[in-house]
């Protein structure tokens, strides 16, 4: 059934046998063992690079989310503490007392 020609279809020309002796230099080079090994090495390198990028992305995600959950709240709290310390120092300067001493008792 597949060998019957369809009406209105386009028939493709017969394929050449790639193993003929009349192939050109480029065809012989592309079929050489060195080219096959090069293609295999390239394929292996691409596979390793893909795996490396995937695992690096996972590690970056873990590091980023851990940083957001653990370190950012610490930074915010340290900033609040610094602002409170600056505010107390400013009030002490306005009231005329030194920052290290207690206010005078009457």
TrEMBL record:
Basic and acidic residues compositional bias: what residue ranges?
13-24
List the GO terms this entry assigns under cellular component, sorted alphabetically. Answer: mitochondrial outer membrane
A GO BP term here is: intracellular protein transport
Location of the protein in the cell: Mitochondrion outer membrane
Is Transmembrane among this UniProt entry's keywords?
A: yes
- Topology term for the membrane: Single-pass membrane protein
Q: Which InterPro entries match?
A: Tom22 (IPR005683), Tom22_pln (IPR017411)
* UniProt KW keywords: Membrane, Mitochondrion, Mitochondrion outer membrane, Protein transport, Receptor, Translocation, Transmembrane, Transmembrane helix, Transport
User: Keyword Membrane: yes or no?
Assistant: yes
Q: Give the source's domain of life in one word.
A: Eukaryota
Region annotated Disordered, chain positions: 1-24
Q: Where are the transmembrane segments?
A: 59-76
Instruction: State where it is primarily located.
Output: mitochondrion
Pfam families in UniProt: Tom22
PANTHER family hit by this protein: MITOCHONDRIAL IMPORT RECEPTOR SUBUNIT TOM9-2
Homology family: Belongs to the Tom22 family.
Protein name in UniProt:
Mitochondrial import receptor subunit TOM22 homolog
| Annotated source species | Rubus argutus
């Amino acid at each position: 059934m597949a060998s019957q020609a369809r009406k209105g279809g386009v028939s493709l020309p017969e394929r050449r046998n790639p193993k003929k002796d009349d192939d050109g230099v480029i065809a012989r080079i592309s079929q050489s063992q060195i080219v096959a090994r090069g293609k295999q090495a390239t394929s292996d390198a691409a596979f390793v690079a893909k795996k490396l990028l995937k695992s690096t992305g996972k590690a970056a995600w873990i590091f980023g989310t851990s940083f957001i959950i653990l370190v950012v709240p610490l930074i915010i709290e340290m900033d609040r503490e610094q602002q409170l310390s600056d505010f107390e120092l400013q009030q002490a300067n306005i009231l005329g007392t030194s920052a290290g001493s207690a206010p005078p008792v009457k």
